[in-house]
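The records we work with from here on pair a chain with its fold. These numbers are not coordinates but entries in a learned vocabulary of local backbone shapes. To see the layout at work, look at the sequence and tokens printed below.
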Amino acid sequence: VFDSFSQSDASATRKFGGVGIGLSLCRRLVQYLEGSIEVDSSPGKGSVFRVCLDFEKQSGSIADLLERPESIRGKRVLIVDPDDAGRLIIRDMAEHWGCRIKESASFDRAVEKVALMNEKSSGFDIIIADMGRSRSETVSFAQKIKETGKADQQIIILCDNGIPGDVERLSKVGVNGYLPKPVNPVLLFDCISTVMAVKKLG
């Protein structure tokens, strides 16, 4: 099964697609890392794959550095989404966590609210925005937010049709988090906690 263009059951190609190179690529990657990969398989029952790799033990961990808050209660959150239902879903989650919520149905209006909030107070802690119809508009939005004078405001982008390169493209303009839709509440809370912890580290 580790040979290129090989499948244990040729009928799987017609049923599930694929050309039989996935496990070959896995084996080559594991070998590149000087490890080993094995499989135990029973027709009609399933397969168990084992990968063994040697790594140097690291001193400490990311979890030790990122003292993520147990609660994000009181954080000021701006939700940006043209869809009413989309904003409602995120608002319900954030209110449950005790966040203070503002909403916007457009990028332009959101930029105005961010600027106004920056003048009145220390600004929003977190901005959660839907990717929208245009990636270029999303990139422009993130740039404008970072240019408002509060560069430490954390931006999380939600996307239901992600493509390769999204994370790199958005991180270059200051986006701090990126999550797929539909949004998993646990993942969103974890993402918010993590970006706030990174902000704290400076």
